[in-house]
Design a protein that fits this description.
The chain is α+β, with helices and mostly antiparallel strands and 131 residues long. It has helices at residues 7-11, 23-30, 75-86, 90-93, 98-105, 120-130, and strands at residues 32-39, 42-49, 54-57, 60-63. The longest helix has 12 residues, at 75-86.
Length: 131
């Protein structure tokens, strides 16, 4: 996904009350979070806690949500939880198109082009008309 490598975009979605180098980490450790998402083109704040769904696998609890490769990081699971709240459940997230997720994180306009059903020059014409 286009935003997958953009950790800064996601971390900037968190509402942080304080300033300074540790403000983000202090907010994460509080257990209550506010995340800014674009809903119907308007910037809104979604409130969540830091409990995530888990299942016992191999005798240990394991998260049933996205996690980063770095131990102890929970920001990705919290972003996913906020999206699950907006889209009415984790199971609905798998049904979304990538554009649905991009719309939540950016106010930039997006257009879906089904390039399988159009000639290349038509696709380029649509792209150029959007700029």
């Amino acid at each position: 996904m286009i935003l997958a490598g953009q950790e800064t975009v996601f971390k900037n979605a968190f509402v942080v009350d304080a300033e300074g180098p540790n403000a983000y980490n202090e907010r994460i450790s509080s257990g209550l979070h506010q995340i800014r998402l674009y809903l119907n083109g308007e910037l809104k704040t979604v409130s969540i806690d830091d409990f995530v769904p888990t299942a016992v696998l191999g005798g240990l609890p394991n998260p049933l949500c996205s996690m980063t490769a770095t131990d102890g990081e929970i920001w990705l699971a919290l972003i996913e939880k906020a999206c699950a709240k907006v889209f009415l459940g984790y199971e609905r997230l798998v049904e979304l198109h990538a554009l649905d997720i991009i719309r939540v994180f950016t106010p930039a306009p997006q257009v879906f082009i089904n390039h399988d059903k159009q000639q290349p020059e038509e696709v380029w014409g649509i792209i150029y008309s959007q700029s």
